[in-house]
Amino acid sequence: MTPGTPEEVLDAVAEALAEGTPLEILGAGTKRNYGRPAEAGRRLSLSRLAGITLYEPNELVMTARPGTPLAEIEANLDRNGQQLAFEPADYGAVLKGAEDRDKTGGATIGGIFACNLSGPRRIAAGAARDHILGVKAVSGRAEAFKSGGRVVKNVTGYDMSKLLTGSFGTLAVMTEVTFKVLPAPDDSRTVVIPGLDDRAALDAMTKALTGPWEVTAAAHLPKPLAQRSWVARIAGANAATILRLEGPAPSVAARAKGLGEGLAGFGTVGELAHADTRALWREIRDVHPLVSPSALGPGCEVWRIAAPPSEATAITGRIAGNLRTQAFYDWGGGLIWLAIGALDDMAATKRAAIVRAAIGEAGGHGTLIRADAETRRTVPVFQPEPEALAGLTRRVKENFDPKGILNAGRMYAGV
Amino acid sequence: MKMPKPDAGVIARRKQIVGALRDIVPGEGVIEEVDELRAYECDGLTAYRELPLIVVLPRTVEQVSRVLAYCLANDIKVVPRGAGTSLSGGALPLADAVTLGLGKFNRILDIDYDNRCVVAQTGVTNLAITEAVEHKGFYYAPDPSSQIACTIGGNVAENSGGVHCLKYGLTANNLLGLQVVLMDGQVIRLGGKHVGADGYDLMGVLTGSEGLLGVITEVTVRILTKPETARAFLLGFATTEAAAHCVADIISAGIIPGGMEMMDRLAIHAAEDFVHAGYPRDAEALLIVELDGHEAEVDYLIGRVRRIAEDNGAASVRISADEDERLLFWAGRKAAFPAIGRISPDYYCMDGTIPRGRLPEVLTGIAELSKRFGLRVANVFHAGDGNLHPLILYDANIPGELEKAEEFGAEILKLCVKVGGVLTGEHGVGVEKRDLMGVMFNEDDLKHQQRLKCAFDPKSLLNPGKMFPILHRCAELGRVHIHRGRTRHPDLPRF
Ligand SMILES: Cc1cc2nc3c(=O)[nH]c(=O)nc-3n(C[C@H](O)[C@H](O)[C@H](O)COP(=O)(O)OP(=O)(O)OC[C@H]3O[C@@H](n4cnc5c(N)ncnc54)[C@H](O)[C@@H]3O)c2cc1C
User: In the structure, which protein residues have their CB atom closer than 6 angstroms to any atom of ligand 1?
Assistant: First the structure.
């Protein structure tokens, strides 16, 4: 079904509820393979419920229907020198297993909030959840409700907008989202330190992020992955630790100089200008170093691991001791992208257990982003929750979708 | 304000409950004497008072867990309490409820510079976190004016803000992890020392939940490196319209200042008389615009903001020459509430948020209401994010004046909602704005909020009487209604 109005969404959900037919909720369907395969008798696509309904650049706010293509939103923002500061990633290449990095794009704004996407600027500006201001939605009870508003400061009632952000369509179908937009920086530069091993890179990133330079992104590409960059200076580097600075041009220049001096102890420091900076961080954001082409063959699994930055190399080290892997680091080490080569003789559950055990010691979350459907059915895709929390998660689901008709089982069994 | 009818049965069992709580929290952690209970009879919204049934001050997470499990098993209501500075009556006691005070949870557990975070027990004050890390050049960004007193757990429960939230975000945006005890005594952890956890964003939901969903026992917050430089502009304007326009122009120029505050004439004079900050007495509106960050950036932005201010006809433009002067500029703003306290026996602080562009019109509306109600109003507010704090001046000793002030306040909030804003930007709904929720939300909106409550606290024992005008029973909310009339629309496009 492809409803074109919020009323039609309500009708579609009411019908599914009356019949007991589970629905698969889609935007453009670019992230269908993200999460557990949902049990569904019918598809509900929001692609026709599209369009920007409010954009006030002076108020830093936009409202859009869920099916609005991200490209349309970004084009509008761009005309006003604004952006989505949370830098939503495009997982197209990772999820489709596309070997060609051009086969991406097409994401809708509803999907971006439903999956709570973010990008390298997560450490400075937050994720989608930090930018959503209000939402209108239809719950699994076939009732329309709204939450939040269009202003930044609002504590009127529970923050249901955050609840729906990252809930993968399992609680309600969003029919409208209102979010914060912010000025885009005039200029950006990337400070590059070549040749560091992972541990030294982690130290360099920590130093950069604890200094006065207002670094807005910090990543490290070990040697084999740096070579895959389309940015020549990075491809030629023997591993690349990269630090992004953004803002007014005079400020960026001064901070880049200061940062370079501050990190001189780590080696010879280079710099990338605005155009290369944009290209490079797009690659990092969209996980290109691991997937285009797949670093470990087409059948590789890809994990996204969020953990305390200081634990990053310990985690990758523990996993590498047991599996054939390649990894790179974003968020100053707080995010690890890890590919595991296809291992025919090892069960998927065993691989997952190795990864989760390695994270567990550090206190973090591991999400299995890319794997075949069978694996995603048998291995918990999202970090398994301890019993008390899992119980709470189930009760939240039951209260919003008591008959399990919205993306049933997409996040956890029964949720 | 009508509170839920106290349960006489529970009140009759008071002695027995005291005994049971003493078994869980031995020593002086259970308070039952009226004289001592008096200290807990209200929070920052002092117009409402009620003696709690009992106050319990646990020291450990295990004690909190056992207290809650006991209260659940015995159908006893619980009101969580931090420092009691809430301005919306969120921590107001109930005659038949145990007030669960978290003041003993006052230790910082871990300072982790490499991961740029602090782990603190819930009762640690907001300011204590900054104080613990500032010698290394770090700070915790959200800075409510009550930061010396309010607790970090209370900040989470209210999603508190401060003048620096325009650039650095509210409590919600600076939070990494929580430990929470649920009403059934189970302990959960959300997030950790990292961002980007998956699963439902229950941390986001608990933030701003006003003690209705769970009891927070531990908080992990992100700390930031102190900006290299900070300088403040003091801009005087002949009209509030011009000041509001200047705010809009700064934002549209792509500049997000560290803080951007506005004060009107009455507030300017009260503050100037009190702290002598050098505010222009002839101005109708004053803006404080703080630019912080790297020195090169601040220097560059000073030039741009100065031009924008001049283009908007600023009558006076001053930039702080040094750190002392910057702090002096702020001193007036920070003391604005007590300064108003000097010129009026009582004042009532409102907290609506509006789209910035509607500022002139809303200020005019407030001025008209002020005439209609015959009460003065001073405006001090977070202009950058449209969060208004009209202070209504009244005298509680004059019969009927408090009620008049409240009615005036409600009219202001309705006006905020009418122009696309909300009832509360940072102080919470509590009891104060509870009965206004219907201005913003319809029945289905509120029912869905309460269903979230049902997932956490199905018997509605945690902080009842706050936030929701009508409490539906979870059994009733849980029923599924099949909307036959809405189904089978043949015209609905299908694959
Ligand atoms: C002079 C003054 C200035 C203020 N300035 C600001 C300001 O600039 N910005 C701003 O946002 N607020 C401000 N406030 C309001 C107030 O300080 C904040 O709301 C603060 O966060 C409350 O913290 P508290 O510890 O006092 O909480 P309390 O008042 O004790 O409780 C507040 C609410 O949180 C709940 N609660 C408290 N602790 C817990 C816990 N551990 N677990 C679960 N629930 C809990 C309570 O049940 C209650 O509903 C100001 C107040 C005053 C008196």
Answer: B 43-44, 79-87, 90-91, 102, 122, 144-146, 150-151, 153-155, 157-158, 160-162, 210-211, 215-216, 337, 426-427, 463
Query: Does A411 reside within a domain?
Result: no
Same domain, A149 and A10: yes
Separation between Cα atoms, residue B158 and residue B171, nearest integer Å: 9
Q: Which of B278, B283, B384 is nearest to B327 (CA)?
A: B278
User: Could you tell me if A157 and A201 lie in one domain?
Assistant: no
Over residues B270-281, the pLDDT tens digits come to 999 999 999 999
- Has residue A238 got a pLDDT over 50? yes
Chain A residues in contact with B250 (beta carbon < 8 A): none
In this structure, which amino acid lies at residue A248?
Answer: P
Q: Which domain holds residue A98?
A: 6-183
A1 contacts on B by Cβ (under 8 Å): 492-495
B/e letters for B274-306, b = 16+ CB within 10 Å, e = fewer, are bbebebbeebbbbbbbbbbbbbbbbebbeeebb
Pick the last residue of a domain from A135, A155, A183.
Answer: A183
Any chain A CB within 8 A of the CB of B475? no
In a domain, A403, yes or no: no
Count, residues in chain B: 495
User: For residue range A155-165, what is the model confidence (pLDDT) as tens digits?
Assistant: 999 999 999 99
Q: How far apart are CA B147 and CA B142, in angstroms?
A: 9
Whether residues A15 and A147 share a domain: the answer is: yes
Specify whether A317 is located in the same domain as A365: yes
- Alpha carbon separation from A115 to A163, A294, A306, A340, B372 (Å, rounded): 11, 23, 15, 23, 49
Q: What percent of chain B has pLDDT over 90?
A: 94
Tokens of A374: 């069978």
Task: Provide the H-helix boundaries in A27-134.
Answer: 70-79, 92-96, 109-114, 122-125
Residues B372-421 pLDDT 10s: 999 999 999 999 999 999 999 999 999 999 999 999 999 999 999 999 99
Beta bridge partners of A194: A240
Give the H or E element holding residue A161.
helix A160-164
Give the C-alpha separation, B339 to B179, whole Å.
38
Measured in whole angstroms, how far is the alpha carbon of residue A243 from the centre of its chain? 19
CA distance B261 to B380: 7
How far apart, in whole angstroms, are the C-alpha atoms of residue A76 and residue A74? Answer: 5
Does A373 lie in the same domain as A341? yes
Tell me whether residue A211 is in a domain.
yes
Q: Residue A145 sits in a domain of what CATH number? A: 3.30.465.10
Cα B324 to middle of ligand 1, angstroms: 29
Q: Which whole-number Å values give the CA distances from A357 to A195, A349, B280, in the listed order?
A: 30, 12, 63
Q: Per the structure, how many domains does chain A have?
A: 3
B418-457 tens-digit pLDDT: 999 999 999 999 999 999 999 999 999 999 999 999 999 9
- Considering the domain boundaries, does residue A270 fall inside one? yes
Report the residue of chain A nearest B165, measured CA to CA: A153
Mean pLDDT confidence for B53-65:
98
Q: Which of A347, A362, A378 is where one domain is finished?
A: A378
Q: Does pLDDT of B495 surpass 50?
A: no
* Interface TM-score (ipTM) > 0.90: yes
Region for A409 from its dihedrals, namely left if φ exceeds 0, alpha if ψ lies in -120 to 50, beta otherwise: left
